[in-house]
Amino acid sequence: MRTMTPKLRIWWGVITVLVLVYALFPVFSIIATSFKLPSQLNLGQFLPKTWTWSNYEQILTGSAKDLFLPALRNSIGISLIATAIAVVLATLAAYAIARLDFPGKRLILTTALGVSIFPVVSIVTPLFNLWRNIGLYDTWLGLIIPYLSLTLPISIWTLAAFFRQIPWELEQAAQVDGATAWQAFRKAIVPLAAPGVFTTALIAFFIAWNDFVYGISLTSTSAARPVPAALAFFTGASQFEEPTGAISAAAVIVTVPVVILVLLFQRQIVSGLTQGAVKG
Amino acid sequence: MSADVATQAPARAPKKARSDRARSEARLGWWLAGPAFVVMLAVTIYPILQALYDSLFNYRLTAPDDKAFIGLNNYKVVLTDSLFWQSLWVTTLIMIVSVVVELLLGFALALVMHRAITSLRGLLRTAILVPYGIITVVSAFAWFYAFDINSGFINHWFDWVPGIDPNLNWFAHQGTSLSVIIASEIWKTTPFISLLLLAGLSQVPTELEEAAEVDGATWGQRLRRVVLPNMKAAIMVAVLFRALDAFRIFDNVYIMTNGANNTNVLSLLAYNTSINRLEIGLGSAISVILFLCVILICFIAIKLFKVDLASARGEG
Question: How many whole angstroms separate alpha carbon B30 and alpha carbon B307?
Answer without folding.
Answer: 29
